[in-house]
Amino acid sequence: MTIHSASSPGGNLPAPRSALDANDVRTAYRRWAGVYDTTFGGISASGRRATVQVINGLPGRRVLEAGVGTGLALPMYSSGKRVVGIDLSADMLERARTRVREGRIATVEALREMDAEATDFADGEFDIAVAMFVASVVPNPLRLLAEMRRVVRPGGYLLFVNHFAAERGLRWWFERTIAPASRALGWHPDFKFAALFTQEELAISERRPMPPFGLFTLVRLPR
């Protein structure tokens, strides 16, 4: 899947464009909302759990979860955190709200329908921002990273867990074979590290392969 360079509104930030736009994302997750937890929720469970475990061990109280989806990670946050979840899909958010209500999850401060690439939060409002399995489906990954960086205070942390494309081998071939079908799935299987991070950012980041089979990678980037 080709990534095209573009400029973001209101600035000169170069931005790789994925095959998905905001309407594609809404449509895909309207289709998948009812079965997401029992399909992708299972394969992503270890990555979510490991990511929240890292967050729970970091200093700082306020956490932004960008692309909160159905709220699968929300019960995992420790009592010392206060979480604001945002998502572009109203259908997914409705399930997240049900999860919070039925589970009486006190750590959740708010769940809001909002574009993670253009939030209305103040600069430095959060201590930590995390995007789990989101970066490869937003229209503009670089704008997502820039917005997460903006709303996190200096000294805070940005975390991503995502599938990143293999460089070679059988997985490389498989990812490129299924890439044309990714619009229907709301997924971008040939998403590369370079679509989100600069070489300088990768150099200062911490990266950990996640199960199953290292299919996902957890990236922690200092703010």
Report on the architecture of this protein.
With 223 residues, the protein is an alpha/beta fold. The protein has eight helices and nine strands. It has helices spanning 22-32, 40-43, 45-56, 90-103, 141-151, 169-178, 182-185, 199-204, and strands at 4-7, 14-17, 62-66, 82-87, 108-113, 126-132, 152-162, 206-210, 216-222. The longest helix has 14 residues, at 90-103. The model is unreliable at 1-19 (pLDDT under 50).
In terms of topology, how is this protein built?
Layout: E1 4-7, E2 14-17, H1 22-32, H2 40-43, H3 45-56, E3 62-66, E4 82-87, H4 90-103, E5 108-113, E6 126-132, H5 141-151, E7 152-162, H6 169-178, H7 182-185, H8 199-204, E8 206-210, E9 216-222
Characterize this entry briefly.
The protein has 223 residues and is α/β, with parallel strands linked by helices. Helix content is 32%, strand content 25%. The chain has a single domain, classed as Vaccinia Virus protein VP39 (Rossmann fold).
Q: Which stretches are poorly predicted, pLDDT < 50 over at least 5 residues?
A: 1-19
Radius of gyration, Cα only, in angstroms?
A: 16 Å
- List how many beta strands DSSP finds: 9
Beta-sheet strand percentage?
15-25%
Per CATH, what is the topology? Rossmann fold
Determine the N-to-C terminus distance: 30 Å
CATH architecture: 3-Layer(aba) Sandwich
**Helical/strand content category:** alpha/beta
Q: Strand order, main sheet: write it out.
A: 5-4-3-6-7-9-8
Give the SSE order as H and E letters: EEHHHEEHEEHEHHHEE
Overall form:
globular
